[in-house]
Design goal:
By secondary structure, the protein is an alpha+beta fold. The protein has helices at 2-19, 67-76, 81-84, 128-151, 156-165, 169-176, 181-200, 209-213, 236-242; strands at residues 25-28, 34-40, 46-50, 60-61, 225-228, 258-264, 267-277, 281-288, 291-298, 302-309. Helix 4 packs antiparallel against helix 5 (156-165), helix 4 runs parallel beside helix 6 and helix 5 (156-165) packs across helix 6.
């Protein structure tokens, strides 16, 4: 009988022992209450407590514990240290729990230095863009000299070389000079006119003694004269020599009954006089109804020049 009672007492003692939570502790809260249980599952928000074999308390925030309770939690459960270490003030014994950050050493690095600023006219030749612009302007200067030489009747090659040696200044000098090339042009025209006159010089017809004895014939009606390209060279010298009577403002006796008929690429024009002759073109005075105007005809476009009597 005694054995039975002893066994029953032992069972009751063991049941009471196992009914208590393992490692249960007492923790004070900031509101004055006391919490008994085993701390489990700590995180940033707080911690849970196992208050019985099958019961778990709600999660309690860290700020609800007193400083003494936080110290106990830190000592008993190492996992809670990283959450409560910042809530405990002036605790020398807990300095070893603070994680020491490694010293950050900043190493010197090689830095890129910006290019030195350059200014002035010479900086134009340093950058590729500036060099390209300079080459383009220099080429345009030489081409401008060549064009000025053609326009002012100078040798274009000479003017282009002058532009290459003296940019801007060389072409400007030839631009303001009088048309010195006109002398060379006139010399060429004189030579061409002489050749043309030699070509056009009629062969004297042989006359018989009977014809020489006849009286001179009466003046006949002016005949039509045609000058065609190929047989004649149309230039300034040609018009100044062949059409001199038609360059007067008041027509003379030899041209008052005649008109000029010029066939060109730009059309067929009939005029009474030549108002102006330039090195490369002429101005023909024509009538259009009751009005009159000057028509510009380049020598290179003239096909033929006809001198004929007026109609009616």
């Amino acid at each position: 009988m005694r054995i039975v009672w002893a066994m029953g007492l032992a069972v009751l003692i063991l049941a009471g022992f196992f009914s208590l939570p393992t490692m249960a502790g007492t923790y004070e809260l900031s509101n004055g209450q006391t919490l008994i249980g085993d701390p489990i599952a700590p995180d940033r928000e707080g911690i849970l407590f196992k208050t019985g074999p099958t019961t778990i308390s709600p999660r309690i925030a860290w700020t609800n514990f007193t400083e003494t309770a936080l110290r106990s939690l830190m000592r008993e459960n190492p996992e809670t240290r990283r959450y409560v270490v910042n809530l405990i003030y002036d605790v020398p014994e807990l300095e070893e729990t603070v994680v020491k950050r490694p010293d950050v050493r900043i190493q010197a690095v090689a830095r890129l230095h910006p290019p030195e600023p350059r200014s002035g006219f010479l900086a134009l030749f340093v950058s590729p863009v500036g060099l390209f612009l300079f080459v383009m302007l220099y080429a345009a200067n030489i081409y401008g000299g060549y064009a000025i030489g053609q326009f002012r009747s100078f040798n274009p090659i000479v003017v282009a070389v002058a532009a290459a040696v003296l940019p801007v200044i060389g072409p400007f000098v030839f631009l303001i000079l009088p048309k010195g090339g006109d002398e060379e042009l006139m010399d060429e025209e004189d030579e061409m006119a002489e050749d043309q006159e030699a070509y056009e010089e009629p062969v004297a017809a042989e006359t018989t003694p009977a014809e020489e004895a006849l009286p001179p014939a009466l003046p006949e009606t002016p005949e039509t004269v045609v000058y065609e390209r190929g047989r004649f060279t149309f230039n300034r010298r040609f018009f100044e020599t062949k059409l001199a009577p038609f360059m007067r403002v008041v027509p003379g006796e030899e041209s008052k009954d005649l008109v000029l008929e010029i066939d060109s690429v730009r059309g067929h024009h009939i005029g009474s006089r030549v108002s102006k002759v330039l090195p490369s073109e002429l101005h023909l005075h024509v009538k259009k109804g009751d009005a009159s105007a000057d028509v510009v005809l380049p020598f290179a476009e003239i096909k033929s020049v006809t001198i004929r009597p007026k109609e009616g």
